[in-house]
Amino acid sequence: MNRLDTELINSQSPYKVEESDEENYFEFFTEHDVHYSVGFMPDDNLMQSEAYHLIIVNVDNRPSPSDRKVKDAVQAIVAEFFDKNNTTLLYICDTGDGKQRLRSRLFERWFSAYSKKALYTSVTSSVVDEDGITNYATIIVRNDNPRLVEVIAEFTSTISLLNQKP
Questions:
Q1: What are the pLDDT digits (tens) for 73-112?
Q2: Contact (Cβ atoms closer than 8 angstroms) between residue 1 and residue 85
Q3: DSSP string covering 16-84
Q4: Which of 39, 65, 74, 77 has most Cβ atoms within 10 angstroms of its Cβ?
């Protein structure tokens, strides 16, 4: 993954974003003092092509009031990721607290509100695991990615395989 420029991120973000001690992770604090970490972790399980998981974490797990600026900060980080990397981004919703559908809808709403969404292809799907828990995954790829069709087909095929009953 190519290094992201925090100066460029901060020119678009309402919150001051800083690099984290962890490679490819960034963090910011909201006006309500909620600490967020946003990172990009290489995917080596779901996709065969180069892909990264988008990780968004409320570090202290503190209740966070509705704050449009969080969306804007995350969008600034993701925009810089795609400016520097013409690759695939996966967002898989955490299932630890049963709020994965809520997270998926929020992420979809954030993406649909993104001013440059026409530059990307986004596909969201769900997978029911062996415990009957529905998991949600979204893939985002730049439309000018030379492997766009292949990547979308691979994602769709993988989701289909994961949804097959054993």
A1: 999 999 999 999 999 999 887 666 677 777 788 778 878 8
A2: yes
A3: --EE-SSTTEEEEE-TT--EEEEEEEE-SSS-SSSEEEEEEEETT-------HHHHHHHHHHHHHHHHH
A4: 77
Query: What CATH fold (topology level) applies to the domain 6-163?
Result: Aminopeptidase (3.40.630)
Phi, psi (rounded to 5 degrees) for 86 = -95, 75
DSSP 129: -
Break the chain into its structural domains and give their ranges: 6-163
Where residue 32 falls (left for φ over 0; alpha for ψ -120 to 50; beta otherwise) is: alpha
Task: Please count the residues of the chain.
Answer: 166
Q: Two tokens at 11? A: 């020119």
